[in-house]
Amino acid sequence: xxxxxxxxxxxxxxxxxxxxxxxxxxxxxxxxxxxxxxxxxxxxxxxxxxxxxxxxxxxxxxxxxxxxxxxxxxxxxxxxxxxxxxxxxxxxxxxxxxxxxxxxxxxxxxxxxxxxxxxxxxxxxxxxx
Length: 129
Known about the structure:
Layout: E1 3-9, E2 15-21, H1 23-26, E3 36-38, E4 48-56, E5 71-76, E6 91-96, E7 104-111, H2 117-128
Parallel strand pairs: 1-7
Antiparallel strand pairs: 1-2, 3-4, 4-7, 5-6
């Protein structure tokens, strides 16, 4: 059964972390970076989340330019997965593809419809009182 940690950010820079498992986690499986997912999967009903990144349990980052969900060794000059310490430096790095699978441990997302996390979570706290 799939189990993820979903980190959601908004335009104000506020971020929140949610643990997702079971049927809610299945909403993410097979999706690719850049796709949109219903926020109800993490308890943000009425919001839409855009998938922006992620990593597997070993910390290997997902890259949008690698198809599928398999591991790939790339010679990188910079970008996601490698920051060179000097000009011209390159390094072979193992990264994961852009598709979310059960091997994915963390998924990064942002609020796509322009709302804020504070407003969404304040509404939930008001409903609970």
